[in-house]
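anyone seen this seq b4? input:
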Amino acid sequence: LRGSKSFTAALAGEAERNGHGLAYKSVSVGHLEAAPLSPSRLSLGRASSTATSTAAPEQGRPRDYLVLAIFSCFCPVWPINVVALVFSIMSRNSGQQGDMDGARRLGRMARLLSIISIMLGTVIIVLYISLSVRGNIPF
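predicted toks r here
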């Protein structure tokens, strides 16, 4: 009898990926490989050598402009400032979940809508005050 140099091993993470309770992979003795980690189990401190050599340096967390969006809610342009607040909250949630590109995109949209809301609100307030001082609109 001749002994076999291959065996079947259970790999962690495979069960989550393919939906089965047990995951087995047949490999030979000379070709052992580590089980790939799912994105939810990746450690922030550990990265492969190819990822660290080609990846851009960590830039920190993107801004969500929540304070600006809340400030814009005091302007009388209610649909725009509410949407800016929603985009800001979505940006914060995306950043917490690790989607930095989505968080940056949503943060920029929140900033844009907040600035538009503040500018339009300022124009509306100035017009209302100037027309009411002239006597065209009663206070």
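Residues 100-134 form the longest helix (35 residues). The first strand starts at residue 6 and ends at 10. kinda curious what u guys think
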